[in-house]
Amino acid sequence: MTKPTSSPVRATTQEFLEIEDIKEDLIILKNGSVALVLETAAVNFGLLSEEEQDSLIYAYASLLNSLSFPLQVSILSRRMDISSYIELIGNVEQNQTNPVMKERLQRYREFILSIVKENKVLEKKFYLCIPFSALELGVKSALGGKSKLPFPKDYIISRAKTSLFPKRDHLLRQLSRIGLKGRQLTTQELVELFFNVYNPTNTGEKLAETTGYTAPMVESIGRISS
């Protein structure tokens, strides 16, 4: 029979995540790699004319052909909570004195409720992730599993910015040719994004400003820095 250990086994959340830190609007991984994330919108391709569709296809092909670096496209779908919107319509309907407008608001509210009942209302967000590999730092292997960064964090960030910022600017220019606007996610937005990915809710959570944190977001079980 195996004798129990004197101290309990304690694993930390951080051990199961590849993220070492999120700093200066960049994601730093444990192996020294870095990632920059852009958020962009979508185009309703089906509503465009045939000429507009052809033009968009050529512009997208031009974007792909112009890439000389890896690019990851991620789509995040989340069920939306529209109860506050339905409540707003109901309040406007009750305060409406025009009988015609009151009836139209009532029909519109019932229409929205029928859609929600039959289908899930989803919010989709589109992200473009530009990576900076640890191999570019001279590290022999970019595989995970290391418990310590290969170089000081400030040095990694400096090298990553030199590589990532020109790629970011190029991608933003190419997106504008398609008629899309893109922007780089801030540290606050990145923290909230990953928090909601690992802690999914109907509406998503807003966190306190990251400038108030003095240590990594998660250190060990039962210890959340603030």
Write structural notes for this entry.
- Helix 1 (50-66) runs antiparallel to helix 4 (153-178).
- This protein is 39% helix and 19% strand.
- Strand 1 and strand 2 (26-29) form a beta hairpin.
- It has 226 residues and is an alpha+beta fold.
- It has five helices and eight strands.
- The longest helix has 26 residues, at 153-178.
- Strands 1, 2, 3, 4, 5 and 6 form a six-stranded antiparallel sheet that branches. A two-stranded antiparallel sheet has the order 7-8.
- Residues 218-226 have low confidence and may be disordered.
- The protein has helices at 50-66, 83-95, 99-118, 153-178, 187-198; strands at residues 19-23, 26-29, 34-40, 72-79, 122-132, 182-184, 218-220, 223-224.
- It folds into two domains: 15-79 and 123-224, no CATH class; 81-120.
- The two termini are 43 Å apart.
Report the mean per-residue pLDDT as an integer: 81
- How many E strands? 8
Q: Count up the domains.
A: 2
Beta-strand proportion: 15-25%
| Biggest sheet details | 6 strands, antiparallel
Radius of gyration: 24 Å
Helix proportion of residues, in percent? 25-40%
Shape: extended
Number of helices: 5
- Secondary-structure element order, N to C: EEEHEHHEHEHEE
Low-pLDDT sequence parts: 218-226
Task: Tell me the structural class.
Answer: alpha+beta
The N- to C-terminal Cα distance equals: 43 Å
